[in-house]
Amino acid sequence: MLHTPVEIGPGTADPAVADRVVDAEAALEFMKEATKVATGTELEDIGQRLEIKSALFREVLAEDRIRSLDEEGLGRILRHIFTLKRKAKRLLRRNDLESIRQGLGDLLYGEDDVADRFDRFVGGVEGFERAMIVSLASEALHFTDPGRYWLWTHWIWNPKTGTGALPLVTHQEGVDLAGPSPGAVYQQVGQALVQVDAAGHAAGYARSGKGLFGTDVFLACVYAVYMFTVFRVKLSQEFNRILPELPELVERVLGVHEIGEGHG
Questions:
Q1: Among 111, 81, 91, which residue's Cα sits nearest to residue 254?
Q2: Is the entire prediction scored with pTM above 0.85?
Q3: What is the mean pLDDT of each run of 10 residues along the chain (264 residues)?
């Protein structure tokens, strides 16, 4: 049985806590800016692609199949993780396939607290920046069991720089994202996302996908709007022209740009 102190789903957030955590005005303003350049249909399509991505992860990383995970299967997963796309060979140069299988099996199906499993996985992968390993761990958890686990990447929250989409839509005094280890931070992010998810579905800005997938799309939109704002201010107009449009940027950071009915 999987254990985690964070509950995800309808009715798991306290409205009073959500009000303290979520900056509703900022959240609505970010989505207002996003929907100036992306239609509701485009964002809903991204939400549906997240369901396809989840089906792929659940297929490849199923408990009864993970012990036979091969290089091709690992590549199919990494292809849809923003920071790890096309890095399967590099991962296997520094880590043998059996250790990856065992690490993912323990992470997804072990009986310890999720923070402990998360820390073991992050500490057991060599040859990659910690942010990339964190992305692999959280994406494996979230897309294999999206009703229980959540997404944490450095575009959502970067502990080193204090930046990301999450702090842009939460009150600093209402949320604590710090922790002594990656697993502890993962739990803190989850506590905040419970509130963001509840507020987002109630207010309508996280309805582009089912459950937490709608919040994934929302946070990716926040990140994209922020990035476009920064680039417009700091970079030349010529460089800005090579940036993808907002819907494509959202697809890319969520790892669904090249995914379709055939799983990609």
A1: 81
A2: yes
A3: 42 69 95 95 97 97 96 94 89 93 98 97 94 97 97 96 96 90 97 94 93 97 91 58 83 91 53
